[in-house]
Amino acid sequence: MSANLSTVRHTRGFDVIKPLSVTALILMMLPLILLPLASIFIFGMSAGLQSFWHALTMPDAIFALKLSFVTSFWATLFNIFFGLFAAYVLARYSFWGRNAIIVLISIPTAIPTAVAGFALLLLWGPYGLLGRYLPTDFQIMFTPYAIILANIFVTFPLAFGVIMPVLETMNRSLEEASATMGATRWQTFWHVTLPSLRGAIVGGALLTFARSVGEFGSTILVSGNLSGRTQTAPLYIFAKFNEGQVEAANAVAIVLAVFSFVIFSILFFARDWLETD
Amino acid sequence: MRMRKLGILVLITSFFLTACLPGPTSKHGNRSITIYAFSIMKESLERDIVPAFKERWKQQHGEDVSFSYSFAGSETVTNQILQGAPADIAILSIELDVQRLIKAGFVSQDWFATPQRGIVNKTPFVILVRAGNPLGITDFADLGKPGVKLIHPDPVSSGGAQWSILSIYGSELKKSEMESGQQDKVRALNTLKSVWGNVFVTPESARAARTTFETGYGDALITYELEALLMKQAGAPVEIVVPKATIFSEHPGVVIERNVTADERDVVNAFRNFLWSEEAQKAFVKNNFRSSTNDALNEANPHLVKIEMPFTVHYFGGWEKASPEIIDGVFRDQVKK
Amino acid sequence: MQNETEKFAVSVRGVSKSFGTTTVLSDINFDVLEGEILVLLGASGSGKTTILRVISGLELPDSGSVRFHEKDVTDVPARERGTGVIFQSYALFPKMNVEKNIGYGLRLRRRPKAEIKARVNELIDLVHLNEHREKSPSQLSGGQQQRVAIARALAYNPEVLLFDEPFGALDAQIRTMLRREIRTLLKAIKVPSVFITHDQEEALELGDRIAVINKGSIEQIGTPYEVYMHPETEYVATFLGAANILPGIFRDGKFTADSTSLDLDESGNFRDGQSVSLVFRPEDVFLRRPENLKQHYQQLADGVVEEVSFVGAFERLTVKLLVGKDKSIVVTRPKTETSMFPLVAGQNVTVGLVRFRVLPSAARSAES
Q: Average pLDDT in the B188-211 region?
């Protein structure tokens, strides 16, 4: 599915619209996207590579990055499994309330992340609706597990949203053929359905992971923002900025920016492989 | 094909292994104290006070205690604790926040049955302007002049913002009292109104407001003296304008009783008491605070400015009066509209 | 019709199915003999695909039964029935190569690796796909994909093979070639098969017997010769091969329509005065100039040639009958005829019938 680039000739002679519109596009992107990104890198390198490296290797900074990547990893893993399971049930079975569930699954994208974090606090906090019954040692809030939970909530619809359409439009004959050849539902799923979902799963995972790493609004509420304990990378940037340590914030910001760039480059260049049937 | 599958398997398992949650940067396994404090307390605690306490404790008891911190605006810190954040010690900007914690059962009623009624340090509020004082600011009233762009933290989240409002309002009351023997509430209200009219951004905490000012925004900033000194000492092109009359903010430090377990009690209490030790108070002064125990210690820091007409929150009858009457009654209902 | 079902490979009895308010199948009955190729022939929407899905277990009938040899499989889920289905799109698993596709059924049954390998090789030889065994389905042509689909279905020795319009996506030439190949193959391996198609030429060439389906009911089952030469309904007559239909009345043992009448060989089934249709095929029409009609063809009527077309192997003409409502019929003549007696548009001819059938009228109600 490579881009369907147009080769239609619209005018006699030289078509000025094309370079004009391309230039306009780039001009629009400059102040909105390109320049802000560039300023992170320019500022970060202004004090020299030495100072950048020093800011980056501070224990709290490294911890924040590690924490972000690990919590995002687990949240992504969970959401892939759940997204697969939910997509399968919703794409293959019809039942009363099916449409309602599909809408519900997509709701976390519409909810402001701060609301999500707040809701989790209200439920699981030490004085929360359910949290009050948890013994002190098993308190979830203000620990890294709360971060994972918040990330699961917020990124829930992403993997699901990528996998579901693929399942819905998949040629049913494949699964029927497998059934007539003697496969149980699970065997069909494992041997036939899953391999065809490979691209969607990888794409969904990358998307979820990238989104999760950048999550802020819910994390700041449920983590307690303890530096060196529960402070993720975005929280670290925010805290360092508030403390006036702009270089420290910048160093981590650069890492996150580069990381997101890498993920989306993978998604883009590998999309043919990801989508081959 | 087999090799590729194997390679992928190896990649996945190694990722799994490394994906266990990272251990905290401070050593775990031993006892740990969690401090939630308002934003400007960061340097004094992290650099001087806590290391001094750790060393002392180690000498006396042979134990390594680890600390973890979380800093934000005073109101935010209080809200976090109310929601269950695992703080053992809280150092807040205004007494009102302590009252909230008492009401919710986190802090004991007799929190002030400690030295200095629980106040660990204090600092006056000053005005910070750009080098050369181009707009000719001399006092709070000047901040109400047209064309002045003021940064002021948000009173909803920042205790320092509330101190600032009290200092503006109170300084006019004090000056009018000095001049005519009577507190001119109308004049104070008008000054507050004109000053607040020049505020163009309200960051979450006093520290955040300072950072915004540092980045080059705004013409002036009302802030704790220590923030102003820190900026000057870092070489920023700023000047401190000392108002004639200004408030001294007093910062309470409390133990969050609910979160302290029986086996932590001794070290937590010891730390709290340490805050009033000479060593700690000297450290506060070094970090540009003023001592709450002994004014003489303040001499050690030559940068601390002299205030002509100082006053505290008791000038208004304490926070019990100041909060409803001035913060709510005057500021929220009349100035902010 | 025998009632013992044990002798048949597949036995369908009384199957009916509705989707919502639409009745798709009503009372379907037929058998498939051992080693037989049965073709279900019908137009789109006639229900033939549904019959296939009922046999394979992909659909559950509302009533009726399906039996494989002795066993009643009506309640047996699809995966336990042991049918081999070749889908219209072939449904080859895109992420597996040819070998893996073919071996899938055996891998599901956890056969030992050696056995699977041997069987896969055997099948690859059978369908002549040796050079392509490592390719993935997207690298194969339509005909090759179909062969993989067949091999895959045969791998686990199914009770019956079910083909769902397998030649639909192919070019005409390839279609014909493949048709013959597959018939040879199926006859060699002796597995009973059911084919679905809407192409009557295909049905005639491929099937040992053909079941013509119209709107959810079977109109006739018989050998290709039977259904073509002796269609029992108008639908069957017009669906298999072209047919000209002339409405008329059965009277005094003859077919009468306006000014013509024809003697019938068997008149047993008709009442006097019943509406009937005369059905005759274009190739069974004999055209002569009025003065040359030979005696042993029954004369139908006079007519005028309207259009003459050259269609390669034969000539097709439309002739307007000068009887009743000026009906036009289609006539085909082989080259032997056209060279001996050339005809042009506008010429007067006499239309004689070599062969014809009279069937009860489908549309009109009986008169008198």
A: 90
Q: Is A244 on the interface with B (CB under 8 A)?
A: yes
Is residue C109 within 8 Å of residue C158, measured between CB atoms? no
Look at chain B and report how many structural domains it folds into: 2
Q: Which residue has the tokens 């402070």?
A: A231
Q: Do C156 and A182 touch (CB under 8 A)?
A: yes
Is residue C22's pLDDT more than 50? yes
Same domain, B185 and B278: no
C8-237 is classed CATH 3.40.50.300: yes
Is the Cβ pair B208, A59 closer than 8 Å?
Answer: no
Contact residues for B296 (Cβ-Cβ < 8 A; gap 6+): none
- Identity of the residue in C82, C83, C89 whose CB atom sits nearest the CB atom of A171: C89
Tell me the pLDDT tens digit for each residue of C64-105.
999 998 889 999 999 999 999 999 889 999 989 999 999 999
For residue A177, the chain C residues in CB contact (below 8 A) are 85, 87, 91, 93
Contact between C83 and C56 under an 8 Å Cβ cutoff? The reply is: yes
Whether residues B85 and B151 share a domain: the answer is: no
Query: How far from the centroid of its chain's Cα atoms is residue C301's Cα?
Result: 32
- B17 part of contact set with chain A, CB < 8 Å: no
Chains C and A touch (3+ CB pairs under 8 A): yes
Specify the higher pLDDT residue, C59 or C363: C59
Domain residues for the domain of B218 are 123-249+307-335
Complex ipTM, two decimals?
0.81
CATH at B311:
3.40.190.10
Contacts of C356 (CB under 8 A, 6+ apart): C262, C278, C279, C280, C284, C298
* C243-360 CATH fold: OB fold (Dihydrolipoamide Acetyltransferase, E2P) (2.40.50)
In the prediction, which pLDDT does C313 show?
85
User: Which of A1, A181, A275 best probes binding to C when mutated, by most C CB atoms within 10 angstroms?
Assistant: A181
Confidence category of residue A165, pLDDT binned at 50, 70, 90:
very high
Nearest to B248 by CA among B131, B152, B167, B154: B167
Put simply, the answer to whether A183 touches C56 (Cβ < 8 Å) is no
Residue B11 placed within a domain: no
* Touch test B–C: 3 Cβ pairs or more under 8 Å: no
Compare all CA atoms of chain B with the CA of A243 and give the residue at the minimum distance: B207
Lowest mean pLDDT among A109-113, C9-13, C165-169, C225-229: C165-169
Q: What's the fold here for domain A48-275?
A: MetI-like fold (1.10.3720)
Encode pLDDT of B48-91 as tens digits.
999 999 999 999 988 889 898 898 888 889 988 988 888 999 99
The domain locations on chain A are 14-46, 48-275
Helices C98-108, C142-154: axis angle to 10 degrees equals 20
d(C-alpha C73, C-alpha C57), whole Å: 8
Q: Do A192 and C85 touch (CB under 8 A)?
A: no
Q: Which of A70, A126, A243 sits opposite B22 (nearest CB)?
A: A70
- With respect to residue B83, please indicate whether it lies within any of the assigned structural domains: yes
The domain spans of chain C are 8-237, 243-360
Residue B273 lies in a domain: yes
**Dist. CA C303–CA C323, nearest whole Å:** 8
Q: B73 and B115: one domain? A: yes
Q: Do B238 and B319 share a domain, yes or no? A: yes
